[in-house]
Amino acid sequence: MDILKKTLVQIEAADRQRMKKKENELNSLLKTPKGLGIVEDLAIKLEGMQKNYRPKKKMVLVMAADNGVECEKVSKSKRVITQYVVEAMSNGTSSINSLAKSFGADVKVVDLGIDESSDHTGKINLSGIIQKKLMPFGTNNILNEAAMSYETSVSAIEIGIETVNEFVKEGYNLFATGEMGIGNTSTSSAILKVFSDLPLDDIVGFGSGIDKKTLEHKKEIIKRAILTKKIDKKDPIDVLSKVGGLDIAGMAGTFLGCAKNGVPVVIDGFISAVAALIAYKLCPNARDYMIGSHLSCEPGMKYIMNELNLTAPLLMNMKLGEGTGAIMMFPIIEAACRITEDVRTYPDV
Fold this sequence. Notes:
This protein is α/β, with parallel strands linked by helices and 349 residues long. The protein has helices at 2-10, 16-27, 38-49, 80-90, 95-103, 150-169, 184-196, 212-227, 236-243, 246-261, 270-282, 301-308, 330-342; strands at 57-65, 105-113, 130-131, 172-180, 265-266, 290-291.
């Protein structure tokens, strides 16, 4: 808890004076005022994080863990798929690895609670990932009990913070958030339901590609999981521990760690956005370092972005997770950093 408390105190708001100066500089360039739209907004936001910010080393930081609610058949995929995808990430053969190669970024995976007992072949190799396992079989089934203890939730957040701290020391200064954990659209939806009390029809989506019958079953499981618990919605960590997941907690720590270090971090899809919402509720200043990417197909996504007062500019019909949407913002971020370097100012006429 000491690491989390110390981090929350250290997170400063973005520098509004630098942002105003950058806005004036952009308005002096030979172009239509605000003609580059969101690209200019990004340039201003990045300047608020760091003076003359430029991406140097880029990373997709993936938090991985299994979720006990998977056993309720709320997903099209079985939990062993978590291992298969993470193994692919570790050896460079997953979707996020392919995109990372295109954009010159590295991919790192943290194991917070992957259930390796579900590998009945004994052939899955997870040796290439960062081992920080807090629960050997993943979280508990939220239908029957709390996902994890309050203390475990804090530990997972702190692992996210400390992981960012270490990579920043190695020179990384642009992060995308990623996750892997079968069943995590259910835990994410449960968290958003507690925070917002929106109708489940407005929150819960098809996740891994379930059919309409399974979707209704998924909603019922989430409803029952919430009703059977006494949850303090004013305490984000209590919400996380009761109906959340280790991957979400680790990503919340990623957002807080990036904010503490003054570096930008990109939100991926719905699950990542829920983690961003938790980080924001723990420390509102953390939002100043968050950048939206794509508008996930999950219906609850738009409500979170509205709550965070952030835009998700990429409409790409993406629903994979892993950080695949977030990394698509990397070239746009890099482009935003170049505008005032390359574009001439208006002549004196």
